[in-house]
Design goal:
The chain has about 270 residues and is an alpha/beta fold. It has two domains: about 130 residues, D-Maltodextrin-Binding Protein, domain 2; about 90 residues, D-Maltodextrin-Binding Protein, domain 2 (3-Layer(aba) Sandwich). Helices cover about 35% and strands about 20% of the residues. The chain is built from nine helices and 14 strands. Strands 8, 9, 10, 11, 12 and 13 form a six-stranded mixed sheet that branches. It is elongated and about 55 Å long.
């Protein structure tokens, strides 16, 4: 009887140890080699590709050539530089087109790892996303038709200004208009080319966004006014819960700023007016 009981106990102990071992190898042990969290640095390395949301309608920052389909710009180079630091290869980056309205939701649902898309850092946005230190600082500008005879924001009293949906531009201009005691109407559009088309067609009297973005839309019939409002700091955004990736990216930005790499990119793309 004692021998039988001893044998049963031995078998039970062996089974427990076997199950524990399987649990650890499958990631059950918090210290084991479990699968990396989605979107983490390790998961991106394992996947072999960094997924980045970028603009494709902003010349000099992120622009898709309609003929070749190639996307180029300052922020594209920045995305490739970060991809190199994570994967070892700047080409290992999946560029996905975003707008001011879609970049947040795409980050939230995990379709992209990072947003590098003229994403302005604000206290409100920092409640929802992690932001790196700024990699570029700009101010809101005004693009108008030369023939309109507009020399400043005050001349736009009672007129229409075209702005991008979900951008901070409208708030910045509204604040300045209140200081001047003037009333301005706003029309919101999904993309920058739509705003430029509206300006060309006379549906809006001004195209307003950060001045460096406006540089890509200036032509012989338009001019950027000297006014600058509400300095805008761009940061690389990541999911709020992904602290490790945010820390990695912030270190990468700091290194690129310290080495002068970012300044070289700003010069390469002529981002200063």
């Amino acid at each position: 009887m004692k021998r039988t009981l001893s044998l049963v106990l031995s078998i039970l102990v062996a089974m427990v140890m076997l199950l524990a071992g399987c649990s650890k190898s499958d990631g059950g042990d918090s210290k084991g080699k479990g699968a990396a969290a989605p979107g983490s640095v390790e998961a991106i390395k394992a996947r072999g590709t960094l997924k980045v949301g970028v603009k494709v309608d902003v010349p000099k920052f992120g622009y898709k050539d309609p003929k070749s389909g190639e996307i180029t710009g300052f922020e594209i180079d920045l995305a490739r530089a970060i991809a190199k630091k994570i994967t070892g290869d700047p080409a290992k980056v999946d560029l996905q087109a975003v707008t001011a309205k879609t970049r947040g939701p795409l980050l939230d649902n995990g379709e992209i790892d990072l947003v590098i898309a003229t994403f302005t850092i604000t206290d409100e946005r920092k409640q929802s996303y992690n932001f790196s230190d700024p990699y570029f600082v700009d101010g809101v500008g005004l693009l108008v038709k030369k023939s309109a005879g507009i020399s400043g924001l005050k001349d736009l009293s009672g007129k229409n200004i075209g702005v991008a949906q979900s951008a901070t531009t409208k708030q910045a201009i509204q604040k300045e208009a209140e200081k001047l005691g003037i009333k301005i109407d706003f029309l919101e559009f999904g993309t920058y080319p739509e705003i430029k088309s509206a300006l060309d067609a006379g549906r809006v009297d001004c195209f307003s966004v950060d001045s460096s973005i406006l540089l890509g839309y200036v032509d012989d019939s338009t001019t950027i006014l000297p006014d600058r409002f509400n300095p805008q700091s761009y940061g690389v955004a990541s999911k709020k819960s992904n602290e490790a990736l945010a820390s990695f990216v912030n270190t990468a930005i700091a290194e690129m700023k310290a080495s002068g790499e970012i300044d070289k990119l700003v010069e390469k793309w002529s981002l200063r007016q």
